[in-house]
Amino acid sequence: MTEVLSQTESLCPHCLRRIPAERVAEGEEVYLLRRCPEHGEVEPVLIWRNRPVPYPLWERARAGRPGAEPDPPGDCPRLCGICPGHLQQTCSAIVEVTGRCDLRCPVCFAASGPAAGPDPAPARLERLLRRTFALAGNCPLQLSGGEPTLRDDLPLIVRRARDIGFDHVQVNTNGLRLGRDAEFARALADAGVTSFFLQFDGVSDDVFRRLRGAPLLDLKLKALERSRELGIGVILVPTLARGVNDSRIGDLIRFAKAWIPVVKGIHFQPQAWLGRYPQSPRNGDRMLIPDILEAIERQTGGELEAAHFIPPG
Predict the structure, then answer these.
(1) What does the pLDDT read at residue 116?
(2) Where are the domains of the chain?
């Protein structure tokens, strides 16, 4: 039995045209269905398996502000985010300070590498930071890339963000320079970094070789040690890929527990099928939120249950 759950918008994967889309339930699975005027029917994309949490129980509509006019048909989600009609505002602002990276990860959704164009000038970044603060207010700010720590002036950018008014400034990093360069890590701490969003895919080098192309565990551990010495919190950020580290989720959770209080949490990110990857994915290749919830419960022996997690919003 097929049931249309909701209407939304998506992109044609061929021409990137914005096109109407539907979320459709077929048995125990939910798909995104699209049709491009130029390229016709687009292959359905699996977005949910109704285990261990049914999709309707996880999906949340954005709450409207009292007295706000409803969105005109077709304008949501295009107008979501910093929207006067919604209670939900920016939860975290991301500013990319470079496109360069010192890794060339096979799973990089941004296809970052050493050959990126010039970094944004400090004056341009300051204008962007000021505009972000004016629109979003004092929300958590993440400085991202590429690899932000390739900028020698990153501490100055952090300092400027703090001076503008951001109380929480997080650096999204692979951690390699943090592990190698104690002086640079100290400069970031002195400038006011409040946490590191640390790429951390597993607790053994076979995972890093597959996902990052090199054995990086020692440097990651040095970055964690450095963070502990400086009193800066860390969020571990594993990219999850089927057949690589989806069976290691429990190991990552146990590792994180052993590093409390420097490790504040884990942000599991299923592999994104854009940027740099060898071929288009099959639906069976996708790692979905319910897959992660199920794996967490199973691999922790029920210490963490799927029912312990709630959707954002």
Answers:
(1) 78
(2) 2-57, 79-278
